[in-house]
Amino acid sequence: MVTNNEKIIAIIPARGGSKRIPHKNIIDFNGKPLIAWTIEAAQKSCLFDTIFVSTDCPEIAAIAQSYGADVPFLRDQFIDDLSPISKATIYTLEQIEQRENKTYATVFQLMPNCPLRSAIDIIDAYKSFKQFSAQFQISCFKFGWMNPWWAFTRDKNFHGNFIFPDAVKQRSQDLDDLYCPTGAIWIANTQELKKNGSFYSEKTVFCPLDWKSALDIDTYEDLEFCNAVFHMLNQQNNAPAKHNPTLQSVLK
């Protein structure tokens, strides 16, 4: 944990009612329950006074506790598909502070469906948060081979309607970089978060992650892709000094 007097809490929201992948937060991901990867990354960062899993599911709670997370109670609100995750995190934070009679200066929200986000990613995100004296920070990644500037919808006759028609006329290298938020690492000043009710504000800083660390698993297709990236990374890490150049080019 940090050496100053600032208390930092990690909250991992993990409700039990996932529908696109049933029991998503505890499915097997390369030999461990999915949520275990996030718990272990938080532990290895050595940043947190408390690593708390917020769940409504006793099975998730038991698994989280077996990996060393705190789960002294189950969440009884904001457990449906429509509730914003920020609301669940704020509600959990307030419950923890009331029960423990202590306050935390900073809260991290770490989604359990981002298993490739590492302890180093968490540490680097906190450094950015401190460097910019941010009140709110959300992780993001830069779009790569996909170019959202050229996105379009199709009508019933399969004709394309470009969302940014002027951008279609420009070369990709002449267009600004575009970014997408990811649930990997969200950070906030706890008091400001309670007042604002969300991590999103006019003051929110967006901190880029490598696209591999930013991967979210929401569907079976996401799970398959994330598994492939996991094995590619392992192959790269275990390769001898002379790496396969094709693999390197894919993972850049």
Description:
The chain has 252 residues and is an alpha/beta fold. The chain folds into two domains: 8-143 and 179-216, Spore Coat Polysaccharide Biosynthesis Protein SpsA, Chain A (Alpha-Beta Complex), CATH 3.90.550.10; 144-177, no CATH class. The chain is built from seven helices and ten strands. It has helices spanning 34-45, 58-66, 85-100, 119-131, 190-196, 220-238, 245-251; strands spanning 8-13, 28-29, 32-33, 50-54, 106-109, 136-142, 152-154, 160-162, 179-189, 205-208. A six-stranded mixed sheet has the order 4-1-5-9-6-10, sandwiched between helices. A two-stranded antiparallel sheet has the order 2-3. The longest helix is centred in the last third of the chain and has 19 residues, at 220-238. The protein is globular and about 60 Å long.
